[in-house]
Specification:
It is a single chain. This protein is mostly beta strands and about 200 residues long. The protein has 3 helices and 11 strands, in the order ααβαββββββββββ. It has helices at about 5-10, 20-25, 50-55; strands at about 30-40, 65-75, 80-90, 95-105, 105-110, 120-125, 130-140, 145-150, 155-160, 165-175, 180-190. A 10-stranded antiparallel beta barrel has the order 1-2-3-4-5-6-7-9-10-11. The protein is globular, with a radius of gyration of 16 Å. The mean pLDDT is about 90. This is DUF4166 domain-containing protein.
């Protein structure tokens, strides 16, 4: 199937997204965005040792800060997916999150980390102000095989546009701990190759 991963997963619902979000998510090619996150990171100190391990894999990070400069680079993959590298510029050094979005059986799946070791089906909803994604079933990848696991954490993503700028709000939570990781802020995004 042709079209971006969002176009494939949303189908006709793509037309209901506000501009310029519709243009950004329907782009098949590369794109770059830069901005500042009002907040980014882990609010629970007890989780930081685990997040240090996940940071090595490009899944999450243990840092927390405000007014964090941010860069996102999207690159199409040979199999029709979209590879994303997000760089958070903390005073102590950069933290990088990587993932690849692919459409599997008509559903958007997010393969997290440099090695795509965690797979999450994302459930998409289009609203007047933008796109809402929330996590569904999850798998741990062992080579090419996905092993279904109980939900490790719930993820919600709200992607909107206000006054021409993209706003993103990503939250991770678990029933016992509540919300424990979040990044939220705004950025400008342009379709095109990284310089």
């Amino acid at each position: 199937m042709t079209g971006s991963v969002f176009e494939q997963a949303l189908g006709p619902g793509l037309a209901d997204l506000p501009e310029p979000l519709r243009t950004h998510v329907s782009a098949v090619g590369a794109g770059i965005g830069e901005g500042v996150f009002a907040s980014a990171g882990c609010a629970r100190r007890m989780l930081r040792p685990l997040l240090r391990l996940l940071a090595r894999r490009g899944v999450l990070f243990p840092d927390q800060g405000t007014d964090v400069p941010f860069r996102i680079v999207n690159t199409p993959t040979a199999d029709g997916g979209l590879h994303t590298v997000r760089t958070f510029r903390f005073p102590a050094g950069d933290r990088v999150l990587e993932d690849t979005l692919r459409v599997v059986d008509g559903h958007l799946h997010d393969f997290l980390g440099r090695r795509n070791g965690l797979e999450v089906r994302m459930l998409l909803t289009v609203g007047d102000t933008g796109l809402r994604m929330r996590s569904g079933p999850q798998w741990v990848r062992v080579g090419r095989v996905g092993v279904r696991v109980p939900r490790l954490a719930g993820v919600t993503v709200l992607d909107t546009v206000v006054e021409g700028r993209r706003h993103i709000d990503v939250r991770l939570r678990t029933p016992l701990l509540g919300e424990w990781f979040r990044y939220a802020g705004e950025f400008e995004y342009e379709v095109g190759e990284a310089e």
